[in-house]
């Protein structure tokens, strides 16, 4: 009796495993269904949830439009959305789950560079393209040996480019002669920006008179700001994310440290205004991907659609997410079928893709060649200042 029950149980287990494998083949994206499954690995809770949530809003709006217009390759796009909780360990777990169990054609996200790096191994091992619209670290698409990561792509410019642009802006537009840097030493993003800014600023004839550091989650910056104020820099470069940057700006202005403060796209969040306060956000400049003041037809159309769906104004991360979904659609159409290898080839071969954050072609390192927008904060309002093209 026991032997019979054991044999029956074993047969049931084997059949269930076979059925499970047949229902969700890894890397196919479609199986026998009428959908193309796309994995979203984003920061929907935790310290940088603003970035992940806003990117996701943009993606979902675009996918809604794409599906309403007939989908892609005759199929509807189905999003598989998972929260990585703003943690790199969880980003790695989500990537592995999406790559091995959810039958996705591509992985979109994460938002930050650190979380994206954690997500890369599972994507690479399973040969599924991973595309980030906001992971700006230079080594996202290139490994430690300088080799291009075959399955990893970006639709945003790199930290080195942002650092270069902001250093040139400090020297040429603000006519500064000396600068101080206050950077987050726990962030690859901030370290990459600081390095590029310093090299470019000094190369242009400027002097870096001080380099100070802080760590994520710090809240009191008065001592370091007092020290920097005493050195009397012309500008202060603060690479980092909005949570700490907002406090730094507020505390600097409260102590009368009124020099221009410069940063990068980590400033792009309504939370920055909440944390710093509108009164302190003057003479603050940062590099971004998009400005709602752009009057291009496609930008106006996007803004109207976004406001209709979400009842709020779109920011740069909303726009980046929107473009990311359409970029994937464009590549799938050029690939001709929902096949991960053909998709990878199509992504790498992208030329003159046009989106609301600008047009770009993919370079040999899987990075886009595109322009950067400079935003000036005036009384807490992000204001379009100028657009700079890559050289």
Which percent band covers the strand fraction? 15-25%
Number of domains: 2
Q: Per CATH, what is the topology of the largest domain?
A: Rossmann fold
Tertiary shape: globular
CATH architecture of the largest domain: 3-Layer(aba) Sandwich
Number of helices: 12
Q: Supply the CATH class of the largest domain.
A: Alpha Beta
| Poorly predicted regions | 1-27
The tally of strands reads 15
CATH superfamily of the largest domain: Response regulator
Give the strand order of the largest sheet, numbering strands 1, 2, ... along the chain. 7-6-8-9-10-14-15
Alpha-carbon distance between the two ends: 79 Å
Reported for the largest beta sheet, the result is: 7 strands, mixed
The share of residues in helices is 40-55%
Q: From the helix content, strand content and strand pairing, which structural class follows?
A: alpha/beta
């Amino acid at each position: 009796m026991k032997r019979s029950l054991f044999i029956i149980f074993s047969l049931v287990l084997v059949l269930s495993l076979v059925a499970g494998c047949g229902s969700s083949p890894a890397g196919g994206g479609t199986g026998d269904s009428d959908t193309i499954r796309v994995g979203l690995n984003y920061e929907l809770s935790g310290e940088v949830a603003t970035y992940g949530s806003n990117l996701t809003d943009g993606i979902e709006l675009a996918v809604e439009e794409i599906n309403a217009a007939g989908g892609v390759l005759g199929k509807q796009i189905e999003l598989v959305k998972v929260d990585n909780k703003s943690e790199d360990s969880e980003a790695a777990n989500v990537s592995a789950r999406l790559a091995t169990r959810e039958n996705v054609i591509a992985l979109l996200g994460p938002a930050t560079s650190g979380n994206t790096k954690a997500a890369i191994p599972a994507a690479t091992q399973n040969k599924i393209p991973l595309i980030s619209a906001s992971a700006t670290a230079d080594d996202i698409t290139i490994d430690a040996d300088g080799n291009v990561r075959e399955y990893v792509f970006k639709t945003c410019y790199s930290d080195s480019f942002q650092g270069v642009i902001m250093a040139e802006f400090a020297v040429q537009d603000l006519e500064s002669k000396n600068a101080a840097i206050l950077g987050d030493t726990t962030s690859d993003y901030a370290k990459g920006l600081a390095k590029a800014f310093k090299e470019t600023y000094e190369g242009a004839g400027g002097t870096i008179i001080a380099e100070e550091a802080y760590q994520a989650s710090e809240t009191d910056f008065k001592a370091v700001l007092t020290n920097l104020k005493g050195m009397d820099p012309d500008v202060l470069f603060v690479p980092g994310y909005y949570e700490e940057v907002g406090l730094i700006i507020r505390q600097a202005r409260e102590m009368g440290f009124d020099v221009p403060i410069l940063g990068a796209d980590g400033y792009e969040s309504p939370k920055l205004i909440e944390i710093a306060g509108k009164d302190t956000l003057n003479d603050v400049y940062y590099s971004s991907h998009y400005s709602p003041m752009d009057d291009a037809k496609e930008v106006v159309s996007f803004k109207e659609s976004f406001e209709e769906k979400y009842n709020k104004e779109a920011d740069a991360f909303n726009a980046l997410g929107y473009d990311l979904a359409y970029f994937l659609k464009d590549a799938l159409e050029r690939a001709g079928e929902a096949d991960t290898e053909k998709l990878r080839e199509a992504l790498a071969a992208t030329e003159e893709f046009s989106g609301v954050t600008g047009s770009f072609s993919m370079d040999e390192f899987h990075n886009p060649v595109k322009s950067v927008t400079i935003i000036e904060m005036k009384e807490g309002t992000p204001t379009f200042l100028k657009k700079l093209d890559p050289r």
